[in-house]
Design a protein that fits this description.
Order of helices and strands: HEE
Strand order of the largest sheet: 1-2
InterPro entries: AP-4-A_phosphorylase, HIT-like, HIT-like_sf
Radius of gyration: 13 Å
Protein name: HIT domain-containing protein
Pfam families: HIT
Organism: Sporolactobacillus putidus
GO molecular function: catalytic activity
Number of strands: 2
Length: about 55
Amino acid sequence: MDKKYSPDGYNIGTNCGFVAGQTIFHCHIHLIPRYKGDVENPQGGVRGVIPEKCIY
């Protein structure tokens, strides 16, 4: 991913267990490339990747 997309950073996340959002038991890892300026305020990490979904 570094070579092809040249991101400035990454968020890595998993959902482990039903109460964490996992609906089917399996290994599933989110690797999200991030770019400077992709969101106004990157604080909150993976929770802020899609700002309109970030209600907490």
